[in-house]
Design goal:
alpha+beta; 4 domains; 6-stranded mixed barrel; 6-stranded mixed β-barrel
């Protein structure tokens, strides 16, 4: 039955696949690696983007935030009348400290007010995970962000003690919620989320207003825009309407911390999807080209016989294309399964940091179709040249052996003629010179493997630089204390007198719009002491870049967004107090890898605002032995709105990086090894297939297994040694490209690769090639000399 169903050439395809199963599997695994990356990263990009879009739409995520000092509630009607505004929610937002017992660092966060009637907000609605919203009219019930509740085991019905505007409040948890504006729940100025130390709660407006003295007023408006509305125009109208009430300046989603992190994640996944899968599929195309070209060369006479018996060029081409297509289909099937598993695992990992009501990995049929088209297209492209040569062979040409290569001329002949080169080495060099294209393609595959290995270790190096720069060089404080409002400089003395405080520096951070030319950005302008030692911006050698009188130190990312450089004069429009506009000369643009920075002298900032010697925070170093006593006093201090702890932030960031980057680096190393094994194994197997008779003859003449193995494996060794430095250099180029393409407003990847990373990459590549050589060496040891010598060339 099978003989009648399958044609002669189809049965030959199956025999060839089984006979060359090792090479077929190796190529299919390389293709599968590319397909799995396309499926997993492409699917995650689509899933995260669509989940975010659906969540934002369903829960009415804001387009604009407009903080003010204090504005009357009736003003909301005027804001709703602005052209382009779809809906407005006015609310009270305030910092809060949580009292959860114990001697550890106290958690801090924010409280947002809810409509007093118990309804959902018109903007930034909440998703109830447990319980219910606070009852209408209640002032002592709250709902808690799910990440904070999970970190502390909080559930509806539990009691919670907090400090709000200097007043201690005992409240009852009525529900646990998720919020579209806290998908990535991170404290301001922090690098990584720490749900144990940062939380958000919501309570009815009356309770927040009573505690903060904001009855009949609001201090933040959140706005949704109509479809097609001009965001800059609406923002300008909001600023104008709220200016008399101490507006800090409206900002959009780009400046909203949670959305900025999610957007950066999506952009990075999109970059990886564009850059990584093509590398694997191109290597798979190389390997298919080598294998099919060898098949066509060996089966030259059979092709001639088939043509003589009436088989058309199209049938001959179809035969070899079927062989290649089976490889593509095997790679596609394995890659699709691996990609689905990998994507689902990564979605679970992302769900630990990005809190959606749901986040399921899914790829529509179009995504799988794209992966299949890429895999099939790459493999077919690799086979195209050899297939074209096979289909063009005429019976007469095919039955006549090809003319032997001429090695009597050229540089290669002169190299081989050196008496210092032994006979086995000459045979190795002759084989390389006979098939330079194959050697070049093999070298290209090993180069790609080395480049991926360098890129994998680059991520670890980049993270190490980020951690060192942010937590050790730039931010050397143990604790950052944020005050509830502006306080006279005397507040610094009160903090200095606390137990365990060893060194302290005040600061004042105010919202500002920086303008240069046609560019404008909203950021925080920080006034610092003349020679900051704890929280500072640093130069290339770790030195402090301190602001000078009338000068502005601007981080490189902000300077690039403005198009400004050192020596340029930037207009700084402060949005508090008298709202002065300052002309500040940019004195330096130091590189920051995490966040942004704009600093001027504290005295200059206070003088410009005309409010005396005022601060709203301080950074300090403390004696670890007095940490418990210091935390206890700061928790009870009514002026303290929040605290950030450097050691805890560093540990949390390390934990996240170890999990996420560890997974990425492990996958990169695994896939790079797949390429190296596939390329080296195929190259040696093809060479062995061509030279079995020659190698068997050498064994009959008395050459040892080691001598014969050297002839075969030295070729792969030479190609590896030639490809290794090129691969390391290509890896540096790939890492540099990634460092540029993965920049975001949140963080930048530094381009830094340690010598150890190059060493590890080279060692892993060599070990992969040695392993593939060991697999082929076993076949050499089992070589049947009599059978091979009886076989016609």
């Amino acid at each position: 039955m099978s003989a009648r169903i399958l044609g002669v050439l189809d049965r030959k395809v199956l025999r060839d696949l089984w006979r060359m199963r090792g090479q077929v599997i190796a190529i299919a695994l390389v293709a599968a690696a590319g397909v799995s990356l396309q499926v997993s990263m492409g699917g995650l990009t689509v899933s995260l983007s669509e989940t975010r879009a659906a969540y934002y739409e369903r829960y009415r995520f804001a387009d604009l935030w407009a903080p003010v000092v204090r504005a009357p509630l009736p003003l909301a009607m005027e804001l709703r009348a602005i052209d382009g505004v779809a809906s407005v929610e006015t609310r009270i937002t305030a910092p809060v400290l949580f009292e959860l017992g114990g001697e550890g660092p106290p958690p801090s966060g924010f409280v947002h007010s809810l409509p007093q009637d118990g309804s959902q907000p018109a903007v930034n609605a909440l998703h109830l995970a447990e319980g219910r919203l606070p009852a209408p009219g209640s002032s002592d019930e709250v709902v808690v962000l799910d990440s904070f509740a999970s970190a502390h085991g909080l559930h509806p019905g539990d009691s919670l003690t907090l400090t709000l505007a200097g007043r201690r409040e005992n409240v009852t948890i009525s529900g646990v919620v998720l919020s579209p504006e806290w998908i990535y729940a991170i404290a301001p100025g922090q690098l990584a989320p720490d749900p144990a130390l940062f939380g958000v709660i919501w309570m009815n407006e009356a309770g927040v207003a009573a505690a903060t003295g904001m009855s009949g007023a609001f201090n933040e408006a959140v706005v949704r825009l109509m479809r097609g509305a001009s965001e800059p125009a609406v923002r300008a109208a909001l600023d104008q309407a709220l200016a008399p009430y101490g507006a800090a300046g409206a900002y959009g989603r780009r400046e909203q911390v949670s959305d900025a992190f999610v957007s950066a994640e999506i952009d990075q996944m999109r970059t990886m999807t564009r850059m990584m899968p093509p590398i694997f599929l191109i290597v798979a195309a190389f390997l298919v080209n080598i294998v099919v070209s060898r098949m066509v060369a060996v089966e030259r006479e059979q092709i001639g016989l088939l043509r003589a018996f009436g088989y058309t060029p199209l049938q001959i081409a179809g035969h070899y294309l079927k062989f290649a297509s089976v490889i593509a289909l095997l790679g596609l099937a394995a890659g699709a399964a691996l990609g689905a598993w990998l994507g689902d695992a990564m979605a679970g990992m992302l769900a630990d940091y990005y809190h959606f009501p749901f986040l399921l990995f899914g790829l529509d049929p179009g995504g799988y179709a794209l992966a299949g088209a890429l895999a099939l297209g790459a493999v077919m492209l690799g086979a195209a040249g050899a297939v074209r040569r096979a289909s063009r062979l005429t019976p007469a040409d095919a039955m006549r052996p090809p003319a032997p290569a001429d090695y009597s001329r050229g540089l290669g002949a002169r190299l081989i003629a050196f008496r210092q080169i032994d006979h086995q080495s000459r045979m190795v060099l002759r084989q390389l010179l006979r098939f330079p294209l194959r050697a070049g393609l093999t070298g290209a595959g090993l180069t790609a493997s080395a480049a991926l290995l360098v890129c994998a270790f680059y991520f670890a190096d980049a993270v190490e630089v980020m951690v060192e720069e942010y937590f050790t060089l730039a931010n050397r404080q143990d604790l950052s204390v944020h005050l509830a409002d502006q306080r006279a400089m005397g507040a610094l003395d009160a903090l200095t007198a606390r137990p365990g405080v060893m060194e302290i520096e005040p600061f004042r951070a105010e919202p500002v719009r920086l303008r240069f030319g046609h560019h404008e950005i909203l950021t925080a302008l920080t006034g610092v002491v003349d020679d900051p030692r704890l929280a500072r911006l640093t130069g290339k050698r770790g030195e402090t870049i301190a602001p000078v009188p009338g000068g502005l130190v601007l981080s490189r990312d902000l300077a690039d967004r403005l198009g400004a450089g050192a020596g340029d004069t930037v207009l700084a429009a402060l949005t508090r107090g008298a709202r002065p506009e300052l002309e500040l000369q940019v004195i330096a643009t130091p590189q920051t890898w995490v966040g942004s920075g704009a600093q001027m002298r504290l005295d200059d900032l206070n003088r410009a605002l005309g409010e005396g010697d005022v601060i709203n925070g301080a950074v300090l170093r403390m004696d670890a032995r007095e940490a418990g006593a210091l935390y206890a006093e700061l928790k009870d201090a009514p002026a303290v709105a929040g605290m950030q702890f450097n050691a805890e932030a560093r540990a949390t960031f390390r934990e996240i990086m170890d999990e996420t980057m560890g997974t990425v680096i492990g996958a990169f190393i695994l896939f790079a090894c797949v390429i190296a094994l596939g390329v080296a194994y195929n190259a040696v197997r093809v060479s062995m297939a061509e030279r079995e008779r020659e190698l068997a003859s050498l064994r009959v003449l008395g050459f040892s297994r080691g001598d014969v193995s050297y002839i075969l494996l030295a070729e792969a060794a030479l190609i590896t040694l030639a490809a290794l430095p090129v691969g390391l250099l290509a890896g540096a180029g790939l890492a540099w490209t990634l460092s540029l393409s993965m920049d975001s407003d949140v963080f930048r990847l530094p381009f830094m690769i340690s010598p150890a990373s190059y060493g590890y990459a080279g060692l892993i590549l060599i070990m992969s090639v040695v392993l593939s050589g060991a697999l082929v060496r076993r076949r050499i040891d089992r070589l049947d000399m009599v059978k091979v010598l009886k076989t016609r060339e």
